[in-house]
Amino acid sequence: MRLRVLASAMVCGVMAVAATACGGGAGSDDSNDKTIKIAYQRWGAGRVMDTFLEDMKKDFEKANTGTKVELVPIVASENDYYTKLQLMMRSPRTAPDIVREDTFLINSDIQAGYLRPLDPYLSKWEEWDQFEGPAKEAGKAQDGKVYGVTDGTDTRGLWYNKKIFAKAGFPVPWEPKNWDEILDAARTIKQQVPDVMPLNVFSGKAAGEASAMQGFEMLLYGTEDTLYNPQQKKWVTGAKGFEDSLDFIKTVYGEKLGPTPKQALNKQIQNTVSADWMPKQELAINLDGSWLPNTWLKTGAKPWPQWSKVLGTTPMPTQNGQAPGKVSLSGGWTWAIPQKSVSPDLAWKLIEQMGSKENNLRFVNENAQIAVRKDVAGEKAYLEAQPTVKFFTDLVSVTQYRPALPEYPKISNEIQVAMEQVMTGQQQPGAAAGTYDKAVAGIVGEDKTTQRSK
Amino acid sequence: MLRRATRGLPLVPSVGLLLVFLAGPILYCFYAAFTDMALTGSGATGNEFVGFDNFAKAFSEPAFANAVFLTLLFTLFSAVLGQNILGMIIAFSMRRTNKIVRAVVGSIVIGAWVLPEIVAAYMWTAVLGDEGTLNRVLEFLRIPGQDWLYSNPILAVSIANVWRGTAFSMLVYSAALSEIPSEIEEAAEVDGATGWWRVWHVTLPMIRRSIMTNLMLITLQTLAVFGLIYAMVGEGGASGKAQTLPIYMYEQAFKFSQIGYGTAVALILLLVGAIFSLIYMRLLNPGKEAT
Predict the structure, then answer these.
(1) H/E run at residue A35
(2) Cα–Cα distance measured from residue B168 to residue B218, given in angstroms and rounded to the nearest whole number
(3) Chain B partners of A6 at a C-beta cutoff of 8 Å?
(4) Using omega within 30 degrees of 0 as the cis cutoff, is the peptide bond preceding B25 cis?
(5) Cis ω before B13 (30° cut-off from 0)
(6) For each of chain B's 291 residues, which pLDDT tens digit applies?
C-alpha cells in the first residue's frame, strides 16, 4: 500500500512538473526550400507589424516566383515571446528562417548558438554602409561577427501635458535641469491641480523591463554610476547612484506624486498609462519612450489626434545637471537568421528587401521608431512623420545601451525587486540596495563585481 | 510459456507509448535538474553536468525559501483545512437533507469544480479586486474594504482554491459515507452514542482510508496549482507575497531561461508532495487492528 501510494504520488507530481518545466519543441512543418517562415511578436491590439509584413510578403513572392513567405506571429507578452522563440530555434523542425530579435537578448542567443553570422551577406550588401555605427554594433557578438540587422531604435525622455502645466501656472516649454526640478514640478502640480497624477515613473515587477529601463536606468545613468563596468568587465555594486535612484523612487511613491503602488503593480500599467491616463489628460509628466505616439495614431490602440498639441517632450536631466546634462537609453530590434533555418539564402533576400531605404522608411514611420539608416534619418518624410521624431532622434547623441549580457534579465529582475521594496515602503533605499548587491554577487559571482562604475 | 508471451503482446504498443511519452519526459526532467540547461546563453549549447549545484543554489535563495513557505501555507489553508473540512461538512450535512436541497447544493458545488481554472480565476478577481463585489458589500455594511489581491494575495488565491476544490472532497466523502452500513450507526445510536461522539468514534474511523486518499490527492493537486494564481496575481503578487513554488519555477525556467534550475525546483516540489504523502500515511494508516 505504502509503496503504491508513494509511487502514484511521485508520478502525479512528476507529471505536473513535466507538463510545466519541460516544454520542449513540438510539432513539425512540411518545410520545403521554397517557403520561408518569419517569426515575430504580436501583442495587444496593434497590427502595424502585421500590415507591414503582409506587404513585404506580397512584394517578395512577386519578385521571386515559386517562393512562399509564411508569417508566424507569436501571440505573447515580451518574456513569453523570447521563450517561445528560443524553443522554436532549438530544433530544425521548428526553427523559423527569420526571427525578430531584441538587441538585448541577441548576445545570449548568439552564445546559445541559435543564430547565424550574416557577414558573408553583409559584405556584398552595399546599403549596409548607410547604417549608423551603433546600429551595426547592436547585432554584433563578442566574436566580432554581425548576427542581426537593426531596423530601428528607440530613445527615452520626459513627456508632459502642456495644458496641465498651464493650469498649475508652470512655464511651458518646460526644461528641468536636474532631478529636483522634476520633483518640484510634480509637487506644484499636486498642489495646484489635485485631480491629476503629477508624475509616472514605472516601478516594480509588474511593469517588468519598463520599470528597469524607463524607470530605474533612466535615473541611474544620470548619476555618476552605471550597472556595468565594460573596462573591467564587472557588474557594479555598492554604488551611491544606485541608492540615490532608489531614493528618487521612494520620493515619488512616498509623497504620492505618482501612481499608488497598487496601480503601479498592475500588469496592465503600461497600457493604462499610454491608452488611458495620457489621452484622458489625467497624467502630467511621464518618463517614457519615443514610441508612445504609436498608440495614438489612426492605426494605433487608442487614436488621439490632438496628442501633438497637448503634449510636450523634454530630455531627462542628469541627477545634478552634470554633463552631458541629459540621459537616454536605447533598445531596438533586429532581423536575424536562425542557425537551423533551412533556407538562409532566401531569408537573407527578404531581410535585404525589408531593410531597403524605401521599406525601412515606411517601417520606422509606421512604427514610430527612431531611424538607424543615415539616408532615412535625413528624409523629410521621416522627420515630418511625427512632431516628436526630431526630438527623440537628437537624443541618440547621448543614448546608452543596457549591458547586453546573458545575466542582464536576472539583474533587471533584481532591480525591479529593489524598486518594489522601496515603493511599497518595505525597505529603505540603503537596505534595498544592499539586498541588490548581494543578489548580483550571487548571480554573476563575487569576482565579477566591482565598486567602480567608470 | 510461449502462450503467456503472446498474451502480453497486445500490451506492447501501450507500454511503448507510456515509456516514450511518460517515462521519457520524467527521466529527462531528472537529468535536466542536474545540468546547467538553459534556453539561451552558454547553458543552451552543451548541457554540462553540475551535480547538486542547482539544489544548493535553491536552498541559498531567499526567494526560494519564501516560495516554499507560501506553498505550504497555501496548501495547508486551501487544501488540508479549507477543501477537506468544508467538503466533509457539506457531505455530512447533505446526508440527512431532502433530495431537493441535496440536488441544489450538489450542483452549485460541482459547478464550481467543473468551471475552467481560468474562468474561476477571473471570477474571483472580480469578487476580490479593488472595485470588486466583496468591497461593495463591505462598503454597504460600513466595513472598510481592501484590495485583497494586492494586500493579501495568498489569502485571496486560497479562497478561490477552496471554492474551486471543495467539490472533490465532498464527492469523496459522500461516497465514503454512503458505504457505511446503516446498521453500524444504528447500533451505535442504540448504545447511546449520539452527535459528535458518534461521528468522532464511529463514523470518522470508518472513513479513515477515504480521508487519507482525499488529503493526498488534494494536497498534490494544490501543490501544483499554477493557472489560478498566475491569472489572479500574475507572477506572485506584490513583493512576491503569493509566489508559490510552481510560479517561482515558471519564473526561473522561462523568464530567466534557466531550465536546469527550474527542473531542480520542480523536483523539490515533488519531494514536498512525497513528504506530505508520508505524513498522511503515518497519521491515518488504519493498520491491521482497524480493518
Answers:
(1) strand A35-42
(2) 8
(3) 274, 277-278
(4) no
(5) no
(6) 677 778 888 888 888 888 888 888 888 889 999 998 888 877 777 778 888 999 999 998 888 999 999 999 999 999 999 999 999 999 988 887 888 888 888 888 888 888 899 999 999 999 998 888 898 999 889 888 888 888 889 999 999 999 999 999 999 999 999 888 888 878 887 887 777 888 888 888 888 889 999 999 999 999 999 999 999 988 877 778 899 999 999 989 888 888 899 999 999 998 999 999 899 888 877 554 444
Q: Name the grid cell of A194.
A: 489635485
Total beta-carbon pairs less than 8 A apart between chain A and chain B: 137
Partner-chain residue, chosen from A9, A113, A261, that has the shortest CB–CB distance to B44: A113
Residues 6+ apart with CB under 8 A from B195: none
C-alpha cell at A312: 510636450
ipTM: 0.76
Dist. CA A332–CA A135, nearest whole Å:
9
| Partners of residue B253 in chain A, C-beta under 8 Å | 20-21
Distance (Å) of CA B211 to CA B5, B85, B108:
40, 10, 23
Q: Test A262 with B147 for CB contact under 8 angstroms.
A: yes
Residue B130 has its nearest CB partner, among A9, A262, A406, at A262
Phi, psi angles (nearest 5°) of residue B61: -95, 125
d(CA B61, CA A428): 21
